[in-house]
Amino acid sequence: MAAHGDAVARLARAIEADPQRREELVQEICVQVWRSLATWDGRCSERTWVLRVAHNVAASHVDRERRRVRTHPEAAEAGDDGRALAELERRQAVAVVHRWVRELPVLDRQVALLFLEGLSPAEIAEVVGVSANAVSVRLTRVKAALAERWKEAGHG
Amino acid sequence: MGEDLDALRAAWSAQTVELPRFSPEELRGAARRFDRVIWRRNLIELAAGALVVGTFGWMGWEAEGWGRLGALLTVAGAVFAVGTLLVRGTPRGEVAGDCLRWRREELIRQRDLLASVWRWYLMPLVPGQVVLLVAIGAEVVAVPGGTWVVAWAACVVLVVFGGVGWMNRRAAAALQRELDELEGADA
Description:
The complex is a heterodimer of chains A (156) and B (187).
Chain A: H1 5-15, H2 19-36, H3 46-66, H4 74-78, H5 85-103, H6 106-116, H7 121-128, H8 132-152
Helix pairs in contact in A: 1-2, 1-3, 2-3, 3-7, 5-8, 6-8, 7-8
Chain B: H1 2-13, H2 24-62, H3 65-88, H4 99-115, H5 117-122, H6 126-140, H7 146-183
Helix pairs in contact in B: 2-3, 3-6, 4-7, 6-7
């Protein structure tokens, strides 16, 4: 789990703006990974296993949170110290991507986040459970939108 | 576009994130806390059921004859509905299965639960409500305007039940649309 902790933390940050809810989500993912590892049979890599659990728990979390009326404290999160301007801009651009990702349908969101984590189409296909061809089709759309958001945020 | 995406991916990976490092004992503690969160979440969702059971349980205690029977039937219906929600209201799929299968199973579970709300939530309450209305009707039929009071009460029950059924069917239809979109996901 330690080896994939950063990916889990970035996933949680991408889909949950509220810090307290995010902590609960991370805790739920860790617990579910820990509990499910007893049934890991080695047919997929450990990373695929952890990412599947993390994304499945995250999808259920989004379903639950949809029923709640709440505010998103994203703006306060984006820049809160005296770091260099470039670093602040980069963080704000990532925050723009976070907001965009939260609006996506579940499968597109999963494909986008796994792409950002550096997975290949074949690896994404293994986590999501669709063919590599179907992932490639989705990725074309997702990549174009991501590049657009990145430019809108003042980069590129 | 390629350079933009490389820069975005680099910025993505460079995010400062901290995942708590859990020891096995801390994980067990986290699991217990997580179970308590689930329990509290269920309690909140079941509060309405508890209110119905409490209110009609008290009525059943106080009333006699048909009134008592109607109240106790309502309590039994509410217990059945709450029990069904507990059993069918939580995800049952393999959490480490692929995301598409998990999503599909979840949508089907939620859709079926919402679409069948008449069978497990509303209908079990109907016998108690009907008997109660009959019992109240028998009491107030001789009072001027009593028939209207019962007719109004019956209308309120019908509107509430119909509204709940309609909203749940609408929600089930929305889930079905999402399921239909998923069917083409692997194309």
